[in-house]
Design goal:
Strand order of the largest sheet: 8-7-6-9-10-11-12
Distance between the termini: 18 Å
Number of domains: 2
CATH architecture of the largest domain: 3-Layer(aba) Sandwich
CATH topology of the largest domain: Rossmann fold
CATH superfamily of the largest domain: NAD(P)-binding Rossmann-like Domain
Shape: globular
Length: about 325
């Protein structure tokens, strides 16, 4: 049975698959769509990250496809109804990168509260902006608003609480009177109230019709003028033009974005040159440790799914 891997995977996981299957692994294959479609003609499984668009065009080129493994948890790059219609099993890496994302959130919250993330260049050039950088704020004693209270949001809350941070939470799937809030020492709030009260807001939501541009100009205007916004979930949840306007107008203290409406972010993006903005290329959940966990989990589940398919055919 043949497995195509179109984006990077941990070497140990790829080697484990290659012991039992015919593996075509090319981390840059996603950048050559025609070649990818050609290789999928004989593929039983496809393993992707977030850049490969598993859409109708791609699926049409893969008549034998039985399994799609996703090296991550977001599934917005996979046409789930089309996979379901073809009875193609979709396997995400649920839970494997939770720690990496949560640590990223705390890391950038600390940097942005202290306003030191852009200081290296000036200091190395002989400047000494000590006075300007002496007005930073501690994270302890602040209020963190977590929007989306799944496994990542809950770990972000726990790590923040260990630093003496008060945590508010908002999740449409968790009732305000749910016991979960008390168990997590988190106060539930409607979204608008959470935005008004929080010093740091961290987003942990899927991208859906309901969440697209959820943080628009109106909602950004509810935040404190020195508040910080962090988005590690999906591009499109934050209105980038509205965020840029808020940062340039001094209506927001800072922001960290790891995800964007268009990836890679265009050079002429409205976000270019915004003050108080920290940008990273969709790596919050990608560390040495999480890559190993994600890769091993998905490789193992994809292998098991292919064996089940093979056994079902043998016994049919």
């Amino acid at each position: 049975m043949r497995i195509v891997i179109s984006e990077f995977i941990d070497g140990a996981a790829a080697a484990a698959l290659a012991r039992d299957f015919d593996v075509c692994y090319d981390a840059a294959l996603v950048e050559r769509p025609a070649e990818l479609r050609a290789k999928l003609g004989s593929a039983d499984a496809l393993i992707v990250r977030n850049r490969t668009q598993v859409n109708a065009t791609l699926l049409a080129a893969a008549p034998k496809l039985k399994v799609v493994g996703r090296l991550g948890v977001g599934l917005d790059n996979i046409d789930l109804p089309a996979c379901a219609e073809r009875r193609i099993e979709v396997i995400p890496a649920t839970g494997a990168n939770v720690r990496s994302v949560a640590e990223y959130v705390i890391c950038v919250a600390l940097l942005l509260r202290r306003q030191i993330h852009g200081a290296s260049g000036a200091v190395a050039a002989g400047e000494w902006p000590r006075a300007a950088l002496s007005q930073g704020r501690e994270l302890a004693g602040s209020t963190l608003g977590v929007v989306g209270f799944g496994s990542i949001g809950r770990l972000v809350a726990a790590l923040a609480q260990a630093l003496s941070v008060r945590v508010l939470g908002c999740d449409a799937a968790v009732a305000p009177d749910s016991a979960l809030w008390a168990e997590q020492n988190t106060a539930p709030r409607p979204l608008d109230d959470l935005l008004r009260e929080s010093d740091v807001v961290s987003l942990h939501l899927p991208l859906t019709d309901a969440t697209r541009r959820l943080l628009d100009a109106r909602r950004l205007s509810l935040m404190k003028p020195d508040a910080i916004l962090i988005n590690t979930s999906r591009g499109g949840i934050v209105d980038e033009a509205a965020l840029a306007a808020a940062l340039r107008g001094g209506a927001l203290g800072g922001a960290a974005l790891d995800v964007f409406e268009q990836e890679p972010l265009p050079a002429a993006s409205v976000l270019a040159g915004c003050p108080g903005l920290l940008l990273t290329p969709h790596i919050a959940g990608v560390t040495h440790e999480s890559n190993a966990r994600v890769s091993a989990l998905v490789a193992g589940e994809v292998a098991a799914a292919l064996v089940r398919h093979r056994d079902n055919v043998a016994h049919a």
